[in-house]
Amino acid sequence: MNGTVVVGVDGSDSALDAVRWAAERARTGGARLRLVHAETPLVGEVAELDGRTRVALHDQASQWVREAADAARDVDPDVRLDVRLQVADPVPLLLAESIDADLLVLGSRGLGGFTSLLLGSTAIAVTDHGGCPVVVVRGSGGTGPVVCGVEEENPAVLDRAFEEASARGVPLVAVRAWHAPPGPLAHAAGVDLAERDAQEGRKLARHLGPWREEYPDVAVEPVVARGNAARALVERARDAALLVVGCHGRGTLSGLLPGSTTHALLHHAPCPVLVVRATGREER
Length: 284
What we know:
The chain is α/β, with parallel strands linked by helices. It has two domains: 4-137, HUPs (Rossmann fold, 3-Layer(aba) Sandwich); 146-277, Rossmann fold (3-Layer(aba) Sandwich), CATH 3.40.50. The protein is built from nine helices and ten strands. It has helices spanning 13-29, 52-75, 90-98, 121-129, 156-168, 183-188, 193-214, 229-236, 260-268, and strands at 4-8, 32-39, 81-87, 103-107, 134-137, 146-149, 172-178, 220-226, 242-247, 273-277. A ten-stranded mixed beta sheet has the order 3-2-1-4-5-10-9-6-7-8, with helices on both faces. The longest helix has 24 residues, at 52-75. Mean pLDDT is 82; it is low at 115-120, 254-260 and 280-284.
């Protein structure tokens, strides 16, 4: 990473957490940090002739950005900072910023223009259509490993997970979940759960091979889990520095249950969540 890390700023404590996380990631990756704020548009009867409301909104936005810049410099006094203040809706502004960014970072709760980014269709719009991976910061993350959900159809997830683990100097926990039938049903159907676990483990080991060769400095713990993938990822991420998952632009996180599972990972994961959209690198 040597480009730009973009972070949404809205004056909330959660946004400041995101700024601190983004500043540290920019520092370790040698990237610039761009603070972005979407000033609320005034429409219809809200618009005024003398412009006082717009001036007040701009003054408030400038204060929030100054506070965010101070928070970033507390992390890295030498941080290279850019600032963008624009009267706009937040999603189009962030999508435009994501086109040339290495990473887009958001807080998990907000006060102003970015409040709704983790609610329903707005979050899906950013993760599905953004030009770069998106991180939702919940706290600062632990000091443990990077955890990722392994999916063969989206190799960009492992690309990013290994990159993040290498940059932090931490191990990678690679989780592959399969939908195991309950014990009695498995027995009745003649399914040997232990043997299936072993088969999934061998498939996982083969799939991880190219990345292990590319990142020999990263210690890898392969994990085969039965049942719900989101539950397995959350359990493994309790002391994690980062949770990395995939998205294929279908409104859900790839390989997981729809709707509520997407929200569960973004709202309830115990660490920052990095969502990597499939980008056409599946030919690897």
